[in-house]
Amino acid sequence: MNSIFSGTRLRDMIRSIRACKTAAEERGVVRKECADIRASINENDPHDRHRNLAKLMFIHMLGYPTHFGQMECLKLIASPGFPEKRIGYLGLMLLLDERQEVLMLVTNSLKQDLNHTNQYVVGLALCALGNICSAEMARDLAPEVERLIQFRDPNIRKKAALCSTRIVRKVPDLAENFINAASSLLKEKHHGVLITGVQLCYELCTINDEALEYFRKKCTEGLIKTLRDITNSAYQPEYDVAGITDPFLHIRLLKLLRVLGHGDADASDLMTDILAQVATKTESNKNAGNAVLYECVETIMAIEDTSSLRVLAINILGRFLSNRDNNIRYVALNMLMKAIAFDDQAVQRHRVTILECVKDPDASIRKRALELVSLLVNENNVKQLTKELIDYLEISDEDFKEDLSAKICSIVEKFSPEKIWYIDQMLKVLSEAGKFVKDDVWHALIVVISNASELHGYTVRALYKAVLTYSEQETLVRVAIWCIGEYGDLLVNNVGMLGIEDPITVTESDAVDVVEDAITRHNSDMTTKAMALVALLKLSSRFPSISERIKDIIVKQKGSLLLEMQQRAIEFNSIVDRHKNIRWSSLVERMPVLDEATFNVRRAGSLPASVSTMAKPSVSIPNGVAAAPLVDLLDLGSDDIMAAPSSSGADFLQDLLGVDLGSSSAQSGATPGPKAGADLLMDILSIGTPSPAQNNTSSIDLLSTAGINNNPSNALDTLSSPAPPHIATTASAGGMFDLLDGLSPSPSKEATNGPAYPPIVAYESSTLKIEFTFSKPSGNPQETNVQATFINLSPNTFTDFIFQAAVPKFLQLHLDPASSNTLPASGNITQNLRVTNSQHGKKSLVMRMRIGYKLNGKDVLEEGQINNFPRGL
Amino acid sequence: QIHFVLLVSRQGKVRLTKWYSPYTQKERSKVIRELSGVILNRGPKLCNFVEWRGYKVVYKRYASLYFCMCIDAEDNELEVLEIIHHYVEILDRYFGSVCELDLIFNFHKAYYILDELLIAGEIQESSKKTVARIISAQDQMVEAAKEEAGSISYIIAQAS
Q1: Nearest to B22 among A97, A295, A361 (CB)
Q2: Under an 8 A CB cutoff, do B82 and A241 touch?
Q3: Comparing C-alpha atoms, which of A677, A660, A667 is closest to residue A731?
């Protein structure tokens, strides 16, 4: 209409854009058009607005920015003519969304148009409001809309009903205002009004319990009648879709009945007949009929138990599942997942068909089917289902392998009847899809293998065979080299052969080949290479005859571009060199059985790091650090390396490598970091290089440690150890000490039970011993209750006994009175202390103390500093 | 609830977008890019549903155009196929065997018709006849206004 004005017409613009050969050309045309439109907007000629906005909408659809046209929409909406309002509202809905502030400016125009005399203008306003209104607009205009639900023209009534749907979604508080108006719509004959009215009631029922009760009481029977009428109605060309009268209305009625019947036996009872009728009479050869059946089945499954109906529903789903139409099969799979909840057996009957769907060429169907299969697995069918899935894994698309292998792993882990089966299946998965397997899965596999001592030989041989064929599967390679490192001797000697195995001949050199291959392959990642290096170190002791060759492989890694590898290579090389001088073989002994419980807890919880440091068992006795851990290191075999708490898969890996992540944090006292590996290596190295004793304090402390260490096993180790204390070096003390944490026998228990603090011996002299036990009041991590027990080691009674203590500023100390001030020979008294640590988590407790008492009438004074509080208090 | 409606050509050109849930302009273009990539690359004879970001997208191809509607995971996909078909039939009646070019040059008409079919992402009218009647009543109002404007400008032109 605007052809007589300046600028191109909409049609011409679309043509010239379509004529563009390149994206750059198109951008040029659009830029020019936008410039023209901006200029025209600035001239503010009302005649051009209509066309400008139409052009802008087209440009918007092409993906160009058009925000400068937003105000034009508002102007068009505010103009009196219908054509302007029509395009203005269209532009508003297209160019703006409900979060834009500009939208608020239109509220007033909307209000006027909702009261307009022309019903089509009212319709435009309702439509815009229903599509993009914000919560504020909903509140402002709700009364207008509510009134329009009763409007004389059905076109307005239905629009007002859907507009109300949006309003109550945005502002649920308004729901009750609409209940009456909505229920009046249910009596309508006009299908549009009825459909929208039912929709509004459904919305109200899901938002507001009062509405639900109201509609359940007042409308259930009416709705059932309406549904019966349209189900039985004669052919109506206006509403007929493939032989069904108004499937849209059918579906909405069934949906509303669903919420009314759910949780209410009486209402459910009322609708049984009509649901049975719909379920049996609806034509299922066309999509429209199936859409109605779908909704009917959903309703049957949701309402209160009517078992005969459920049989019908399951039968419909069975028919759907065998349908040739992919769409129908897809929805069948989807709904069978819900059906499992009430009739597992019925769904199990379709297992074979469902399993076929896992192999469907259609990704959407495969995904649904896989979900469903994993719900169908139980102890009885796990072997068969797993076999099917693994067989399919071999031939499935690459992009489906990730989902599929993850599901298989979770099924196998959950339902595995025995370890050997679990190991077998996991090896198959790793062989076929090892590169898709997540870390926690192969970590779990290693834990299981470690715990299945009777299968070590079998497993390492199976892995050896698998890795020869599937060397490109990274995680398979990792598990294989770990096992070869640990159980290499079982591999070459065919130890622990099971009846089902064929003997294989593997030389020591063959075994090393596999590891060498992994470490030299250019596409092995850092983790694999690091694991290979550790495996080599272990093999050098398992296979002394070829330790020179192993050493050569290790030495080559000195040239690695990865710092970590370089450093380890140097250190390991040094260990291999010097191994004849020390009892080093225990250093590379087979890793102790990994603790499944700890691993599972850690895997499930992925505990935050802070928690795990808290849980870290602390036997830290800074005074007496050095000896015990060293002894433990040399006596490695008996303890549980896995117990060192850490929080993630990565940490776990570090553990596998024999590295305690925590060590760096302890060593530096503050910063936990992933570079811990190196620290540990440092520690190992320093053992291999015995340096002369040089530190007086450390040896003195060593002696005292033996005396006061209250951890019996450590004390025992210390006492029984042949290790001369002079090995201690100050440089390595901290790190080695932390190894102790990882190695002490009980930490796994503590890791799972949360923080528990071992008692300490705070002070000991020839006459007096002080023990502290700790407890934490719940709710305040900063506070610690300490019970001090004073034990008289002398044959005489102490009188006027007094205990005094001082703490640094970041602590607050409160002392309760002691139980007595007389300490009889070999007797004890107790006293409670309460310490508040304002730097909890950052600093440990520390305390100076002074004890005064009279012995045989003479004043005795003893003093000391307590540094060996458990960490984390 | 339908969250958005999308018409994309086989070449990936957007022919219509309608948003019933809040998406910023940036999200909108991302959604369009992502979905047209997935849907245009799906082979024939596969099912018409794509699972996407926890939602389901129901799509159907008519000639060179893909009609897509995004719904909640628990909604009735089969019904949405019917809604799409319903819309296509109304377009077909309105334009007289509709083709992509009709929807390019008269994109606003396609929107007007959609607005008579869906509000707030819910179906509004199950009768194609009723939709056609309401649309033509409004088209007539626009024509009448045009004529009026035309005649006035004609008069002004005559007078000057």
Answers
A1: A97
A2: yes
A3: A667
The pLDDT value recorded for residue A102 is: 81
Q: What secondary structure does DSSP assign to A234-257, as a single string?
A: PP-TTTEETTEE-HHHHHHHHHHH
Q: Residue A552: what pLDDT? A: 87
Inspect the interface and report whether the beta carbons of B115 and A127 lie closer than 8 Å: yes
Distance between CA A2 and CA A732 in Å, rounded? 88
**Chain A residue closest in CA terms to B57:** A364
Q: Are A774 and A757 in contact (CB under 8 A)?
A: yes
The mean pLDDT value for B149-153 works out to: 73
Candidates B9, B16, B18, B47, partner chain A, best to mutate (most A CBs within 10 A):
B47
Low-confidence ranges of chain A (pLDDT < 70): 1-7, 579-586, 605-755
Report if residue A482 sits inside a domain: yes
Q: Which of A1, A58, A81 sits opposite B107 (nearest CB)?
A: A58
Per-residue model confidence (pLDDT) at position A6 = 52
Cβ of B88: how many Cβ atoms within 10 Å?
16
Indicate the SS3 state at residue A437.
Answer: coil
Query: CA A126, CA A122: separation in Å to the nearest integer?
Result: 6
Report how many domains make up chain A: 2
Evaluate whether residue A813 is within a structural domain.
yes
B81 touches chain A (CB under 8 A): yes
**Structure tokens that stand for A807 in this block:** 């703490």
Cα–Cα distance for residue pair A88/A72, rounded to 1 Å: 8
* Cβ–Cβ under 8 Å, residues A753 and A744: no
Q: B154 has which bridge partners?
A: none
Of B49, B82, B104, the CB nearest to A247: B82
Side chain identity at residue A614, one-letter code: M
For A465, A563, A601, the CA distances from A516, given in Å and listed in that order, are 16, 19, 34
CATH of the domain at A786: 2.60.40.1230
pLDDT of res. A864: 83
User: Per the CB < 8 Å rule, is A63 touching B14?
Assistant: yes
Nearest CA in chain A to B105: A11
Query: Given pLDDT bands bounded at 50, 70 and 90, which one contains residue B158?
Result: low
Rounded to two decimals, what is the model's pTM? 0.67
**pLDDT of amino acid A585:** 59
CATH number for the domain spanning A468: value is: 1.25.10
Q: Which long-range contacts (CB under 8 A, 24 or more apart) does A201-208 make?
A: A201/A256, A202/A252, A202/A255, A202/A256, A202/A259, A203/A165, A203/A168, A203/A169, A204/A168, A204/A175, A204/A178, A204/A179, A205/A256, A205/A259, A205/A260, A206/A259, A207/A168, A207/A169, A207/A172, A207/A175, A208/A172, A208/A175, A208/A176, A208/A179
Q: Tell me the CA end-to-end span of chain A in Å, nearest whole number.
A: 82
What range does the domain containing A769 cover?
758-864
B105 closest CB neighbour out of A11, A246, A365: A11
Q: Tell me if A627 sits within 8 A of A706, measured CB to CB.
A: yes
Distance from CA of B69 to the nearest CA of A (A): 15
Domain end point (choices A599, A614, A637): A599
Q: Is residue A575 one of the residues assigned to a domain?
A: yes
What is the model's pLDDT at position A786?
87
Q: Give pLDDT, residue A861.
A: 83
Question: Is A649 inside any structural domain?
Answer: no
Complex ipTM tops 0.85 = yes
Provide the b/e sequence for A274-289 (b: ≥16 CB within 10 Å): bbbebbeebeeeebbb
Domain termination site, one of A541, A564, A599: A599
Which residue from A553, A549, A569 is spatially nearest to A561, judged by alpha carbons?
A569
Angstroms from A176 CA to nearest CA on chain B:
19
Q: How far apart are CA A822 and CA A803, in angstroms?
A: 12
CB of B21 within 8 Å of a chain A CB? The answer is no
Among A81, A99, A291, select the one facing B145 at the smallest CB separation: A81
